[in-house]
Amino acid sequence: MGEVILPFILIILVYAASATNPVPKGLSYNFYDKTCPQLEDTVRAALNPVFITDPTTAPALLRLMFHDCQVQGCDASILIDVSDSAPSKPSELGAKKNFGIRKRELINQIKSRLEIECPGQVSCADIIVLAARESVAISGGPRIKVPLGRRDSLSASSSEVADASLPSSDIGVDDTLSLFAKLGMTTQETVAIMGSHTLGITHCLNIMDRLYMPSNAKASSMDPRFEALLKFSCPEFTPLSQNTSFVFNDPSTFIFDNLYYQNSLQRRGVLRIDAELPLNIKTAGIVEHFAANDDDFFQEFTSAFLKLSYAGVLTGNHGVIRSMCNFVDN
Predict the structure, then answer these.
(1) Residue 296 annotated as binding site
(2) Which residues form the active site (predicted)?
């Protein structure tokens, strides 16, 4: 019975959350109705087989959207490769904070299909957002109705990746709240967007200081058994230059649920922000609420996802529709 009722509940939550987020000028929910009406079906059909064969795809595509939208806005700049013909436009992927970004090629594959079905109409930026939306939904999270109409950038910005545009792996609560407040997120929405850590992995590279630096006071007294597990998975003297080791963010690493908050309350947060959220007076009550109520988490996450997807969008006469996602058309 629960499986039948749940999708209906999620749809109600999506529309309620969407109503509280004014859509930026130039975006609309029916943007491609005439120019590419099969867009969302095409994206879903391309991704579903990949989700089945490789469950790591969903968290990878969600992360791809995060790392695109937080640098220059949601403009597909993260997909631009370094080109001999455009050496002054460096790729964003070379930045340390983009370590482990994967599945960019899926966006290119979807774009190629759409260039056959409706050439020159759909931006790579919109495809990234739709792919992330599908990733959340296929993993058990809310199906988020997103307005479309973004256009693609003409350049990337590796310098913005290096600065505070993307959060560092050791960011704390106050800096996280400040960072996402710039995108118009409330405290509740910021705690909800951190819930995306319920999917995927954390590379050992990002928690070595937290585990092994004596001068680095832990944000909390980590569960000793959990700390031992992390150290077993991330040995102290692993060469970081060859670091492919990782730990799961939570036991249901491929399911979008509220277990992230339950783990944080049990002192099993992997990153510093995961550990601090249940301790900070501004966020502790929200963590406890989301840990007990996944519907409210889904609603706030939907609202936060939409606000992230609105970041710095290019619309109308601004930006372009790139014919290939990884290159800027000459």
Answers:
(1) no
(2) 67 (proton acceptor)
What's the pLDDT tens digit per position in 262-285?
A: 999 999 999 999 999 999 999 999
DSSP per-residue letters across 198-261: GSSEEEGGGTHHHHH-TTS--SS---HHHHHHHHHHS-TT--GGG---EEESSTTTTS-SSHHH
298-321 pLDDT, tens digit each: 999 999 999 999 999 999 999 999
Rounded Cα distance, 161 and 163, in Å: 6
Model-level pTM? 0.87
Distance CA 328, CA 330 (A): 6
Burial class (CB in 10 A: 0-12, 13-18, 19+), 214: exposed
Q: Looking at the predicted structure, is the pLDDT value of residue 131 above 50?
A: yes
Is 198 annotated for ligand binding? Answer: yes
Domains and CATH numbers, the chain: 15-166 (1.10.520.10), 173-303 (1.10.420.10)
CA 171 – CA 248 distance, rounded (Å): 19
Residue 4 has what pLDDT?
31
173 is in an annotated binding site: no
Instruction: Express each pLDDT in 1-25 by its tens digit.
Output: 333 333 333 333 443 344 457 899 9
Copy the structure tokens of residue 188. Answer: 């509740």
Please identify every residue annotated as catalytic.
Answer: 67
Cα–Cα–Cα angle for 59, 63, 64, rounded to 5 degrees:
115
257 in a labelled binding site = yes
